[in-house]
Structures are given as structure tokens and as C-alpha cells.
Amino acid sequence: MNKFQLVLDVGGVLATDLDLFWEELVNQAGLPYDKIRAIYKTEIREKLWQGEISERDFWQWLSYTFPKINLEYLQIVMQKSLVELEGIQHVDKWSTVSDIHILSNHRSEWLQPVIDRLHPFLTSITVSADVGVAKPNPGIYNICNDQLDPDRQIVFVDNKKENLSPAVELGWQTIHADPSNEWIGKVDHLIFR
């Protein structure tokens, strides 16, 4: 039995966020990034990440909201937007001493390439669109927590500081995934000491 349970976010931890997609949308729509993100956040973000709408609904909304876009090309860009980060290279090694769990605000359809790559090392996967609740809502942490062994140390890694507090409330140890990847050394130090 592994000593640790390592709970990892995907976006900003194991793979990039969807920045390439957003950059391409900005280019095609001819609107400022902040304006596009504000429209997205107001109209559809919560429904998308909490699984209240389908991926198809998202693409239809995008096409309706930004009629100048090339939807087919944006769908291709979306598939290429999740680029592996350095952290993903360590999951195999970490899995020798830790159970590996995924806790991510995402769509399973978009995460699938990452999940497929990591599947041999994963104990559980909790994706917001599949469970109907997103971080930092405590509900998604509780869903993940139900899959963990309360008698073993839990370490949660996320790139957004606001997502760490609910984990602390559950008694999980947290590590902020900083852009300079110092977090990887912190995980190594903790689980291999």
C-alpha cells in the first residue's frame, strides 16, 4: 500500500490551460481577450465546467456569439491546446509511492489525451463537468475525498491558490503549482523523504 495520496489538477499542473484556444478565438473574433473572457464567464463558463451543457452546446454558443469565427479550425486548436507540462513527466515516478488522483475543472472530452497517457498510474479521476460541480466549490473536493483513504496522507497540487483553501478544510496538505515548477521539487521532497 502506498503511503501517500497525491491529488493533482491538470490545467496548469500537468498540462497547459487552454491558452492557445483563447488566443485563436481572440484573433478570429477580432475582440479583446478581456471582452471575450467576460462574455464567456457571464454566459456559459459555469454551465460548461459543471456539465450542465454538452460540448456541442458550447460550440453552438461560440458560433452564435462570435459569428466571424472558423469553428472547425477552433475545434482543431482546442485539441492541440492541452500541451504537456514538466509535471506530467513525474507522475510515473510518484505513482511508485503514491496513489495518483486527478481533480480538475474541465471537460472529459478535452482531457482525454492526458487521461489516456496517465491511465496506468491513476487511482481515480474527478472532472467537474462529469460530477456537476467545480472548484473551488467544496462539493467537488468531497466527491474526490470519498475516493481517498482517510488514514493516509493526502497532498493536493493546484495552480490556482483559491482552489487550495477547500482542500485545507478537509485536512489535505496543499502545494501551489507555481509557473517556475518549484512545486515538483516540493512534491519529491515530501513523498520521497
TrEMBL record:
It comes from Gracilibacillus thailandensis. InterPro entries: HAD-like_sf (IPR036412), HAD-SF_hydro_IA (IPR006439), HAD_sf (IPR023214), PGP-like_dom2 (IPR023198). Keywords: Hydrolase. The keyword Hydrolase applies. One of its GO terms (molecular function) is hydrolase activity. It comes from the Bacteria. NCBIfam families: HAD-SF-IA-v1. This is HAD-IA family hydrolase.
